[in-house]
Amino acid sequence: MELKGIHHVSAITANAADNLYFYTEVMGMRLVKKTVNQDAPSMYHLFYADEAGNPGTELTFFEIPRSGATRTGTNSISLTSLRVASDKALQFWQERFTKYGVKQEEITEQVGRKTIRFTDTEGQRLMLVSDETNVGVVGGSPQVHDEIPKEFGIIGLGPVTLTVANGELTRQLIEGVLKFRPVATYPSDRDGQCDVVVYSTGEGGTGAELILEERTDLPTERPGRGSVHHVALRAADQEELSQWIARLTEMQVPHSGFIDRFYFRSVYIKDPNGLTIELATDGPGFDTDEPFETMGESLALPPFLEPRREEIESRLKPLGGGN
Fold it and tell me: Is 0.70 surpassed by the pTM of this model?
């Protein structure tokens, strides 16, 4: 029983229409599911991914129109990576970011990989990571885009950084409970701080890493637009998810219990530093209720919300694509 890697990252936006433009037009990702937050169906939940919506490629957003700006800090999911196939792809993205006015930093190296840090229009903290030297979880297949050559497209999620005030508490969860293994360290940006630790699971590589950074010099993050709500990790199937739930119970880790999200099955954990971590199954997938060719073009609702479609649609602003 071993987690396979990163499943998805779910973040917050205050403007779904602008968010849709940035991630589909600028970043070239596919909107594979246009749905709503199942716990608060008056807000959109948008899923961007590779062309097939494969697990490990999904960056999702809840729309909270009145959300304020994020005050960045500790006890946060502080950086989300997106994978590209090569170092050459990073050069392409440098030029594309300049063309579209995207705030970016210079190409640097992290744990032997070339990277570019950048932000979206709401300050979401992101990083492109090159798979030039990567060995491990295979990436997805980029969505076709007129301006982005396929060999330079986004192929999935890379390492996700957790910044916490008490590194030992989160380490106990990552290593002792979730069975990630430490594979590398690198110096913190702050003098006198502990080294940043890279953890890996499953086949390893960029699609299977969590990065743990301890920071005692920051206030606790106040989430808002541009912050991350949770990170999800891949369980193979429902049987394995049940085994993980049993393990969490046995080890007295508080959890949500089994939750059916229709497109996948889940359990949620609250990390001791306040982070939300989800374990999610690889299936059934986003083509469960829509043909592969038209995924994301119309508002999709899980069966238990379908009877409320008229009410739900009346509260949502159209985004295009048949909403």
Answer: yes
